Amino acid sequence: MPEKARRFWRRQRAPPSSLWGHRDFLLLWLGQSISRLGDQFTGLAIPVIAVFILAAGPLEMGLLGFAGTLPFLLFGLLVGVWVDRRQRRSMLIRADIGRGLMIAAIAALAFAGLLHMAYLYVFSFLIGILTVFFDVAYQAYLPALVDRKQLVDANSKLETSNSVANTGGPALAGAVIELFKAPIAMVFDAASFFFSAATLVGIRKRETLPDPGSRRSILTEVREGLQVVLQEPRLRYIATCTAWSNFFSSAVFSALLIIYLKDALGFTPLTLGLMFTIGSIGGIVGAVTAGPVAKRIGVGGAIILGAVLFGPVMIPLPFVPGSMDFFVGPYMIRFPFVSDYFAFFAIAGMFFVTLIGNLYYNINQVSFRQAIVPVRLQGRLNATMRTIVWGTLPLGAIAGGVLGNAIGVRDAIIVSLVGGAFSFLWVLFSPVRQIKEMPEPVA
After folding, report:
1. 339 closest CA partner among 356, 357, 352, 326
2. 352: Cα separation from own chain's centroid
3. Which domains does the chain have, with CATH numbers?
4. How does pLDDT run across 335-392, given as a tens digit for each residue?
């Protein structure tokens, strides 16, 4: 058979909906997989530098979380308009290169012994600005890159890679920090951003931009993005649920958790990384089962189940004992293995269940909103959602820092976890419950 005929029949046999033959998506997937792995190094290195080296307290950690997430509140809506007017791929490339350079600058200051909290605040804010551009453009770019019917599969693959990075990354990052110190770990992250930018450069498909003559005022387009979310009741309740949860989780994870694990339970950078690694296996489980679960109980049911799993499950965390030694009269009863590892595995188990819930929730709600909104509005949709749901992160971080300073780290964690446990109610008693299948794409 001639070669031309063989190529023709191979194309006929290949499933048209398969992403395995989608060169551009595979490049995006590869770049993001490496970048997410790199994120684990800086994600652990910066808190370790702040708490273990610069002796930051709850308020300082709250300010650090505030600085890193404030750009979503300040610039999110404007970035959405910007993203819908320009090539998203180019924006992603520039954001990756900029973040890589800034991470490298933090590492260089740390190597020189010149790093202190003020620099971390400034760099976190600048990196946050570029992250706003990247995240808004990234979620708006995917529907322009793949077919609408491939969105759940594409998001599942991306989230699976993210979960794999979350699983192996923290242990690897913790080991690197323990052996070679935190600045070395940040060099890995800087390199991963440059690699991601290179894969984006290799993508061939170009987006069709709206006619510049059809543009309206920035205020009008911002208002249109707000209307997309606020006038669609299902999106409105999803946004409220996520914003509520993010406020309280930011109080815990940005301001309080690392300090508590270090001071109350004696965690080191290595044990922190290992604990997050074990817990993050739940993210892989969630990523690969989110689609089947949605088919079995409905898209809305999967979103609600996810919200239930990532809310109340973490409440026992501040009550986990650092040891399991008991005194009976003058005698101490010691359980050697349990004493040394109980807190480690108990908290890792909570993260495991929570991350299953996160993936059920995020894969299905992101795919749902990508499906029901036209491509031309995706930038503003994602910017509006990010402004609402990530805009509570800086508020939660600073609230957690202030609360931890006022009543103590452990009590502040208890208050925050109880508050966040009620987030699932927003989607449980809403039209989200009625979403059975992923809707057909809109025109």
Report:
1. 326
2. 15
3. 22-204+214-434 (1.20.1250.20)
4. 444 445 788 889 999 999 999 999 999 989 988 887 888 777 777 777 788 888 888 9
Report the C-alpha gap between 310 and 361 in whole angstroms.
9
Beta bridge partners, 328, equal: 331
133, 83 in Cβ contact below 8 A? yes
307 vs 61, 300, 356, 371, CA distance in Å? 26, 11, 10, 21
The alpha carbon of 370 is separated from its chain's Cα centroid by a whole number of angstroms, namely 17
Q: What secondary structure does DSSP assign to 42-73, as a single string?
A: HHHHHHHIIIIIS---HHHHHHHHHHHHHHHH
Residues making up the chain, counted from first to last: 443
Burial of 108 (0-12, 13-18, 19+ CB in 10 A): middle
Chain segment 311-340, per-residue pLDDT in tens:
889 999 999 886 544 444 554 444 444 445
Is residue 167 within 8 Å of 284, Cβ to Cβ?
yes
pTM reported for the whole predicted model: 0.79
Judge whether 303 and 361 are in contact, CB under 8 Å: yes
- Nearest residue to 52 via CA among 199, 239, 185: 185
Sorted by sequence, the CB contacts under 8 Å of residue 59 that are 6+ apart come out as: 255, 401, 402, 404, 405
Q: How far is 181 from 179, CA to CA, in rounded Å?
A: 6
